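[Meeting: bench + compute handoff]

Bench side (C.D.) handed over the final construct sequence. Compute side (W.E.) agreed to return the predicted structure before the next meeting so the bench team could plan truncations. Sequence as handed over:
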Amino acid sequence: MTPEQFNEIAANIETQVSRVIVGQRDIVRQTLVTLLAGGNALLEGVPGLGKTMLVRTLAQVLDCKFSRIQFTPDLMPADIVGTNILVEDASGARRFQFEPGPVFANLVLADEINRATPKTQSALLEAMQEHSVTVAKTTHRMSEPFFVLATQNPLEMEGTYPLPEAQLDRFFFKLNVTFPNVDELVTIADRTTGQDTARPQSIANGMTICEMQQLARGVPIAPHITQAAARLIRATHSDDANAPDMVKRYVKWGSSPRGMQALILAGKITALLDGRYNVALDDFRAVAPPVLRHRLIRET
């Protein structure tokens, strides 16, 4: 795959998703960047802003398997990853057979992830990080590409289990979904309350996404640009000499090395989406907010 083909396919994906999702151009772009980086995204926003529709539409455009998991306090790990069940064949012999859970999909929506217990959250964590789950000492691999989009509702926090910092760090981006403006609300009403509903076309498949992911990792980056990324990550720590006064005053702990990995990968993909085959400092400026907003622990 060439950079030109990468750019064309990505632009067509965004166009098709925008036929269904009104506005939220930054969210669509950043979700696509996360997917092409092989990462996972955490979306925070009030209900009804189209988070589920975004993932479902993206799965249709990419011709990938979509799965939605509604997290609740009584959800168990086996409800997500699957379990071994006893089956009997035609001869009467019995054996255990693994029955995959809903996490075995290409695009998984973990809806209101903070409403499940830490035990269930950790079960999803292995799938996110390793792209596999282990049941009864047997490891089962996910089909690639594998992408988890988790959501949080910032308003109703009663009965929730906030994600620990170590688990938040596993998310490539944290995206804040904003409320649509008046014009966007009118467009949403026109698209969803009439007889004709927009249907996106399939643009790519899982193999194409894997090829795009491989190309993105091959984008060259100059040593001084990598050094700039490292200095930015170090400056998020209050004990660093180059940390700004605001960091020293309000930040208890800065970004982990995963933040730098996400910054560089997102920068490479942003450069490709902009038609360039090299990373610039402006690419880091564009992706720094979703990379860092969940990786900085503030003073209480």
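W.E. noted at the follow-up: The radius of gyration is 21 Å. C.D. will use this when planning the next construct.
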